[in-house]
């Protein structure tokens, strides 16, 4: 299955009105739908909410699931998210994430972001040390450019990367994903639905509630947002002929790209993940239609 459930939305930091019951129901629905890969991070939630939630589901049958964990971002006391790639902090945060989840290891452990104040070689070595100690089976880096990926790999190897990719933002295909895949790394892409904009559920007149972070992104503003709506309108027409939703097509396009090995998809409610859980790669004809519509709009 191509979909990886990303737990950031149900951690309740940048999304509004997420209850613990909704979060549990969403994870349970994902598992029932066949999803077996989950993505968490030390900073997903002010108090490790995503670690704690996913741990409830994985403890009893750990070997049936793949858990991706990340360290390198954390919250200050006044709730500002900061980079911290110091080896001692990375080690402490990974150990704390595992304690929260009640688990012994991550299947994939990733440096969440390069820290501009810490040599990347030091952060990479710390992540590698945790792999060697059994806290992770595989390791990688997120939110890095190709040069940083190579620096990380030179020290620790690099089994996986995470980066954005969607119908509106495709630069990473040539600049990072394909080179990384050629070196043997798994490439997990996020923002495939661009925070809901490419899911077909946000209308032109949609007003975001206070505290929602999405309006700060440029694709939610002005002409870029209008172009996204035109793309969604065209996707809806394509999907109506083949029985696929706008969200399923958006994810399907991403996982059809060479080098992509999985799509991180967030959800706040069970119905959201059920709509996208079985999103699969698209056939050549559908891909051609989507490529043409992107050129036309």
TrEMBL record:
Residues 3-294 form the NADP-dependent oxidoreductase domain. Transmembrane segments: none annotated. Keywords: Oxidoreductase. Gene3D superfamilies: NADP-dependent oxidoreductase domain. InterPro entries: AKR (IPR020471), AKR_Detox_Biosynth (IPR050523), NAD(P)_OxRdtase_dom_sf (IPR036812), NADP_OxRdtase_dom (IPR023210). GO terms for molecular function: oxidoreductase activity. The keyword Oxidoreductase applies. One of its GO terms (cellular component) is cytosol. Pfam families: Aldo_ket_red (PF00248). Its EC number is 1.1.1.-. This is General stress protein 69. It comes from Crateriforma conspicua. The lineage of its organism: Bacteria, Pseudomonadati, Planctomycetota, Planctomycetia, Planctomycetales. The gene is yhdN_1.
